[in-house]
Amino acid sequence: MNRNAVNPGPKTEPLIRPRTLKAMLAAFAAVLGALLLSEAWAHRHVIFPWEEWYGFYAAFGFVAYVILVFLAQYVLRPMVIRDEGYYDR
Fold this sequence. Notes:
Blueprint: H1 18-38, H2 56-80
């Protein structure tokens, strides 16, 4: 058994090899780039003028995701968090 002060447990291999992970991230980035480029040929029936901006939906989705993460972290989490010894009582 391989034990030390930093990692006392047995040494295990990662679930995904680093080379495979890099390839998957590159493929993911390529797909996202292709989708963003394909927006030039897509015709949308828009309601508001800013929906015609190139990359509007990608930017809107990213901003909405960031806002939801911060909202959950700094507003909702303090509402539902319990003290450290809550379940020991």
